[in-house]
Amino acid sequence: MMTAVHPMPRRGRFAAGMLMGLSFLAGAAQASEAGSIKAGREAAQSCAACHGDKGNSNNPAFPSLAGQPAKYVASQLTAYRDGKRENAIMNGQASGLSDQQIQDIAAYYAAQERKVASPADEGSELGADLYHQGRENVAACAACHHSEALGNQPAGFPALRGLTAGYVAQSLKDYRSGARAHGQATLMAPLAAELTDDEIDALAAHIASLD
Ligand code: HEC
Ligand code: HEC
Description:
The chain is an all-alpha fold. The chain has two domains: 8-110, Cytochrome c-like domain (Cytochrome Bc1 Complex, Chain D, domain 2); 125-208, Orthogonal Bundle (Cytochrome Bc1 Complex, Chain D, domain 2), CATH 1.10.760. It contains twelve helices and no strands. The radius of gyration is 18 Å and the shape is globular. One heme C binds at residues 5, 44, 46-47, 49-51, 61-63, 65, 73, 76-77, 85, 87, 89-90, 93, 105, 158. One heme C is lined by residues 5, 44, 46-47, 49-51, 61-63, 65, 73, 76-77, 85, 87, 89-90, 93, 105, 158.
């Protein structure tokens, strides 16, 4: 078991703050759909140790969250909490989060500017080709993830810019094997199933070379 760093005391204060916040809003439904950036900032304090200041990670072991679509972050946190996306650290981190806290955290990270440090990889011509053009049975990644790999906020398609080669390759293999099969993973599974290991490495190298 990994040690989970749960901000239990903070959560109590946060819940009270949220109730006060709600009374200023037109309706609770609106708040729970959109999430509160302010409450999310509080709830995400313990996440910064790994995911960096405002969700910009400078440690390759931890993906950046800044600028990710709220819908995407919420869906991943829910999947970690419910054990549908397996990762010992994140299953622990998400286990105590309420649906409202998940919405708030998602709203907070979506509102942060994604900053990418210097490129970590030399890139790959094959990877760039696949990314922008695709090939038979593999849709171009750019169609959903944006030509600059900034993602698609309304659709909830994640930004890939700033992710490390290791993380991208692992994710593609997880979609291919079905280890990541929840939420919108149905959009990734068919094309990941087509990718060879070499193509996965090429795509990962290309994405990690974007600055
Ligand atoms: C001890 C380090 C650590 C802490 C603290 C931590 N995380 Fe994570 N987080 C990780 C790792 C490692 C991954 C990658 C897991 C994987 O491969 O599934 C991750 C992945 C994620 C992802 C998925 C990112 C993606 O691109 O799909 C989200 C969302 C996330 N974390 C949110 C949070 C939130 C919110 C908190 C605080 C409540 C938090 N994390 C705290 C280490 C951590
Ligand atoms: C039809 C739209 C679509 C296309 C085309 C597409 N993706 Fe995705 N991708 C998604 C969605 C939606 C998700 C989030 C799935 C989930 O909920 O786990 C995703 C997730 C990912 C992730 C995980 C990101 C993270 O932060 O964990 C990676 C990596 C990825 N895609 C790479 C690619 C690559 C490389 C290609 C091109 C070969 C590609 N995608 C093509 C829609 C698409």
